Amino acid sequence: MSYVQGATGEWEVVIGLEVHAQVVSQAKLFSGAATVFGSEPNSQVSLVDAAFPGMLPVINRVCIEQAVRTGLGLKAQINLFSVFDRKNYFYADLPAGYQISQFTQPIVGHGEIILDLPDGSTRTVGITRLHLEQDAGKSLHDQHPSKTYVDLNRAGVALMEIVSEPDMRTAEEAAAYLRKLRAILRYLGSCDGNMEEGSMRADVNVSVRRPGGPLGTRTETKNVNSIRYVQQAIEFEVERQIEVLEGGGTIKQETRLWDTVKHVTRSMRSKEEAHDYRYFPDPDLLPLQLDQGWVDAIAATLPELPDDKKARFQEQYKLSLYDAGVLVADQASADYYEAVARGRDPKLAANWVIVELFGALNRLGKDIADSPVSADKLGGLIDLIVDNTISGRIAKDVFLAMLETGKSAADLVEERGLRQVTDTGAIDQAIDQVLAANPDKLAEYKAGKEKLFGFFIGQIMKMTQGKANPALVNELLTRKLQA
Ligand code: ADP
Ligand code: MG
Is the CB of 17 under 6 A from ligand 1? Predict the structure, then answer.
């Protein structure tokens, strides 16, 4: 257990996350309006979303299916009976005066997420519930000097609110939780997980207590939209709360905001109580009753999820826990790897994908989906190494050229004359030339300075423009020097 050292002793940090994940769906939760990100303000608003009098919500089956898929992916209980409630509050971007949400009877109950921590260990975090609710619109304060505009494009968009148990103890665990949740949502196709576009955002609940003592009072930092900010907000809150408590003060249960410029959390409002919202079942919507058979049919279509895939990669390809974890972090990487590994040495394939390809994509700021080198072409490069057409050293240069030109390894090797020299006569000749050009070094070597072997190898490789087969050079040079 990692505790934080304060001035008066150790503190245990307690973290619970509420994640709002936008459901992948062409239409909103209760209307047929579209949900395309970045559209012209108020271009995706139906009369239902604008809360015109007499409009009635009609539930979107796709959104229900996505919530069930997600619940199944989180190994959670699916509640066949659930209820939509009105959560009443006034805000300019909420024309109805209430948000339709789920309160006492959510569609998904208890589940779990297994965290993959940087040191290779795992830890299970409980999911309390997942419920469906509508997103609100957006007030635009920066469009006019004295007016606020309202954009209702998001109003009514389906969100899944995924609530964790207060099971996390460090900012790193919170980050691992968000990464894993995002991976699962993306595998399932139920949320695109794009935090910059706001389709996944986190409310960060943090408290501190004396190790093992009763839970402390929490603060909730709302709508944090990057994993880095979540970590920073936790670190800031932990420090702030410990300082308040050690100074003899108390923590107020309140909602705070993360200031992305000053890197501090700021108080927004004191915590509202549930009864302030006057939740009650929405009289326009019947309770939702699902068939077990329908749920089973959805379960039958679930893809292999990250934890299972990781276990399979370790088993089938004999990869390390670390390599398997990196490769399954997203489905596209896992698919790419499997395409490269098919019929090839799986460890060599993993090395090339993780070290060379991911390294290159990182430098280029590209996603695996836009990789300039296809899995097929990377496989072709590996084949040339294995059949000794090129050395591993030359292969790295060929790979860089592939990134630039998009050409196949075989074409580049032909075009640029990079074929490995395996002709022993040619290599012998190069060795003779190098030894003849360095008589003093040769004498030193013979006198016992054995590390000059590396120097000779370097010179020979240089003379053959790196194309000599390294194993052959080694062998032939050894033989010659022993002679
Ligand atoms: P609300 O809707 O009022 O925010 P919920 O009970 O739905 O309350 O969610 C509370 C969130 O805060 C959950 O993620 C939970 O794990 C977390 N939480 C509850 N108590 C604490 C605590 N003492 N410290 C840290 N997190 C907490
Ligand atoms: Mg909350």
Answer: yes
Task: Give the chain's mean pLDDT.
Answer: 94
Residue type, 263: H
- Could you list which residues have their CB under 5 Å from ion ligand 2? 18
User: Which segments of the chain have a pLDDT < 50?
Assistant: none
Ligand 1 pocket check for 190: Cβ under 6 Å: no
For residue 300, give the 3-state DSSP assignment: coil
CA of 173 to the centre of ligand 1 (A): 16
How many C-beta atoms surround the C-beta of residue 96 within 10 A?
19
Measured from the alpha carbon of residue 277, the closest ligand is: 1
Non-local CB neighbours of 331 within 8 Å, separated by 6+ positions: 186, 187, 303
- pLDDT value of position 465: 85
Q: Name residue 167's amino acid.
A: D
Candidate CATH numbers 1.10.10.410, 1.20.120.790, 1.10.1760.20, 3.40.50.1980; the one for domain 424-482: 1.10.10.410
Q: Is 87 in the pocket of ligand 1 (CB under 6 A)?
A: no
Asked if 8 and 52 touch (Cβ cutoff 8 Å), the reply is: no
Determine the distance separating the centroid of ligand 1 and the alpha carbon of 16, expressed in angstroms: 6
Query: In this structure, which ligand is nearest to the CA of 271?
Result: 1
The pLDDT of residue 419 is 85
pTM of whole model > 0.85?
yes
User: pLDDT by residue (tens digit) across 347-395?
Assistant: 999 999 999 999 999 999 999 999 999 999 999 999 999 988 998 888 9
Query: Which atom, in ligand 1's list, is nearest to the CA of 207?
Result: 24
